[in-house]
Amino acid sequence: MTHSLHRLGTKESLKNDYVVFALTAAGIYGKDLGHTVGSAVKKKRFFDIIAGHNPVNMSVSPTQDRRRLALAAGYSLTQLRDGICDKSEIYSVFNDLDAVKKIVRELKKEDLGLSVVVSGLFDEVFKCCTETSLTPHTVNMSVGIIGKMELLPRREVLELTTMCGHSLVSSRLAEHLIDKAKRKEITPEKAAQTLSKQCLCGIFNTERAAEFIELAAALPAQ
Amino acid sequence: MKINQKCVSCKNCVPYCPVGAIMPSDKAVQIDQDLCVECGVCYRAQVCPVNAIYQPELSWPRTLRAQFSNPVAYRHPTAIGGRGTDEMKTNDVTNRFKHGEAGFCIELGRPGVGATFGDLEKITMQLVGTGVEFEPENPTTLLIDTKTGRLKDETVRSERVLSCIVECKTDEKRVAEVLKALKGASKTANTVFSVGIINRCKDGEIPVRSLLARSGFQTYPNGKTNLGLGKVEN
Fold this sequence. Notes:
The complex is a heterodimer.
Chain A: H1 11-14, E1 18-23, H2 40-51, E2 57-61, E3 69-70, H3 77-82, E4 89-94, H4 97-110, E5 115-121, H5 122-131, E6 138-147, H6 155-161, H7 171-182, H8 188-196, H9 206-218
Helix pairs in contact in A: 4-5, 6-9, 7-8, 7-9, 8-9
Chain B: E1 2-3, E2 22-23, E3 30-31, H1 41-44, E4 53-54, H2 63-69, H3 91-94, E5 101-108, E6 115-116, H4 117-128, E7 133-134, H5 139-143, E8 160-161, E9 164-171, H6 175-185, E10 192-200, H7 207-214, E11 222-226
Antiparallel strand pairs in B: 1-4, 2-3, 5-9, 5-10, 6-8, 7-9
Helix pairs in contact in B: 4-6
């Protein structure tokens, strides 16, 4: 699943949007590589490092009881941490590149052995790797959207909805909330929280969304 | 998803549907069963004041809708969970993508449009002609004949999902050829698709990026980077 790929935005707005996550390989082609068993302790350490740098949003999935818990859905850091098991994947999103750089430095030092992915501007992530004496291993790049483009909502809405890679954040809900923000019936922050709750992986950047909603609400009526 | 007779037609749920399947009316709101992809967003949103939204028992082939659309659905008719594999996220451990290879994640229906498995078939039939290697652990691969790209079970053709991902790989030198084939296939599919390209870094560079640029394909400035920290002890 490529759910942190294809986040749409200008380079300027993407400067404040980094997804950081860790997981272990369940195996490949029927062969267990021994990466997952016993990894919960390391994942808890990863979680503590991430949580110490003020993420905008964060999630753990699956938990021991096979749930997905995200901060934006109202769960606490303690609930998330307590749910971590060997199979868990831990996701977070930051609006501060300096925090990401500090996290990468700490992860290199801790040498947990987890697979760690940073989703964000390649130039910045690669620079961060160089500064930490890390060599980027593999990338996944977006070549964008192909096909019947007339089926898509307007760009201002896509910038919001593409922050949930599972497409659980409805473009209709985004439009509805932008309209309400335009009429001053809801604050951009509250509207962003409503959108963020739909994203089960906790990689929806609520703060960036609030900025987008404020800008979209200021546009002339369609 | 369905709405029962308790519905008071408040229409709170209508905008939450990612594919616009909830139809407002003054008497009772209804869910268009052809459009609904069983993602469960309307149910989880908990905006219905009378709890009229419910998940009915699904049977084949409709179960595929939930598997591909609802990240918390645990019924896996294809026996592989979710919409795709770990692809490059754990490549530092699995070595799924080697130097010189380009991986493709072609996600039909994304962002937020939805797609049918008929759309999937149009894409995979086109891809077969390029000689790509389909990812055996991807759930869509199990639905198609990898020699022809055709669906193995025709009854799934009209099933709609929020998105489904074709994962495949080829020699990185052929990446532009595959993209051109995808652009051709896009004219017949009644949806959109988001395309990701996976590549192993070499000396801190992304080899396929220059190949794409030379062929006139632009890439987003942002994407996913596996930091190479993964390892198996002993």
